[in-house]
């Protein structure tokens, strides 16, 4: 610091040579004062002291580290169907119904399910597959017309199809962990939006008329004007499914094995049985269960036979 200031003073002397010849004593006096002032400031020790009270305040400040605590469970209200009266609270882990929204995982899961459901049975015949003779229809030259081949040519009616579809497999692969997390993400999103209702069991009351479901969805804001409703049961009941399918403009009903991720996001409301929800979460939470490591030792090395 002091050396650089001294060099700066020397440069100032060389640049002002004309004034130095005119007033040499004044110039040297100013340079000496300037360099001595900078040297004094660079070598002067600090006179600031820290009071004991300040040390005491610093030592008593709380630390930033806090003990880790597991996330609290999610409380889900269980309703009675069809009265929709609250029965009790059910606890679910935060890893099941509090997963952050990942649109990329949902998109990949929906594409994966759509690819696996494509049949891929579209088939057309190429000219070799069409039944008929391969004889040339007209001579190559001499007729004055364009050149033609056999009647199985793709440019003729009844001939083969050029570049037509053939049976193929459209299925794609998706890691199991990503697919399971997409299930939990979809359920968490519907729960956080308030679009999912867990009931004890979906069933029709005794002596109910065929118009029960129509009046049920019209009385509650879950019908046609509110985005329809999806009912998910654990087991298939033919009478229940037939009755709900008659009012398909208001709702759709599925059993648990037929439910996909896109079905959880399709309609405005989701009514699911608790038993079905528990099985879905148990089936798609295998990546959360981590087994404890176990050491395996050679028997002859450590144990005597």
TrEMBL record:
Keyword annotations from UniProtKB, A to Z: Ribonucleoprotein, Ribosomal protein
Superkingdom assignment: Eukaryota
Biological-process GO terms, alphabetical: translation
InterPro entries found in the cross-reference section: Ribosomal_uL4 (IPR002136), Ribosomal_uL4-like (IPR013005), Ribosomal_uL4_dom_sf (IPR023574)
Region (Disordered): 33-53, 119-166
Pfam families linked: Ribosomal_L4 (PF00573)
Entry GO MF terms: structural constituent of ribosome
Residue ranges, compositional bias (Low complexity): 41-52
GO cellular component, one term: ribonucleoprotein complex
UniProt similarity note: Belongs to the universal ribosomal protein uL4 family.
Protein name as catalogued: Large ribosomal subunit protein uL4m
Lineage: Eukaryota, Fungi, Dikarya, Ascomycota, Pezizomycotina
């Amino acid at each position: 610091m002091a050396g650089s200031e001294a060099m700066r003073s020397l440069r100032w002397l060389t640049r002002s040579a004309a004034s130095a010849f005119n007033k040499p004593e004044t110039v040297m006096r100013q340079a000496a004062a300037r360099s001595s002032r900078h040297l004094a400031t660079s070598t002067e020790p600090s006179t600031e002291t820290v009071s004991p009270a300040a040390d005491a305040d610093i030592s008593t400040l709380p630390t930033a580290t806090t003990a880790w605590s597991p996330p609290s469970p999610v409380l889900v209200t269980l309703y009675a169907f069809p009265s929709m009266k609250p029965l009790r609270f059910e606890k679910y882990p935060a890893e099941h119904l509090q997963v952050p929204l990942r649109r990329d995982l949902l998109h990949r899961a929906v594409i994966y399910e759509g690819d696996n459901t494509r049949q891929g049975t579209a088939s057309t015949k190429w000219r070799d597959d069409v039944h008929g003779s391969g004889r040339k229809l007209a001579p190559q030259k001499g007729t004055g017309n364009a050149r033609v081949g056999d009647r199985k040519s793709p440019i003729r009616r009844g001939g083969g199809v050029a570049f037509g579809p053939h049976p193929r497999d459209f299925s794609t692969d998706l890691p199991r962990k990503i697919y399971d997390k997409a299930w939990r993400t979809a359920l968490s999103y519907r729960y956080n939006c308030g679009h999912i209702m867990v009931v004890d069991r979906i069933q029709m009351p005794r002596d109910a008329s065929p118009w029960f479901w129509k009046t049920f969805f019209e009385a509650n804001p879950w019908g046609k004007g509110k985005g329809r409703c999806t009912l998910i049961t654990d087991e298939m009941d033919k009478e229940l499914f037939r009755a709900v399918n008659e009012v398909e403009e208001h709702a759709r009903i599925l059993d648990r094995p037929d439910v996909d991720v896109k079905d959880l996001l399709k309609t405005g409301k989701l009514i699911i049985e608790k038993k079905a929800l528990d099985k879905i979460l148990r089936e798609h939470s295998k990546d959360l269960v981590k087994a404890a490591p176990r050491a395996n030792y050679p028997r002859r090395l450590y144990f005597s036979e």
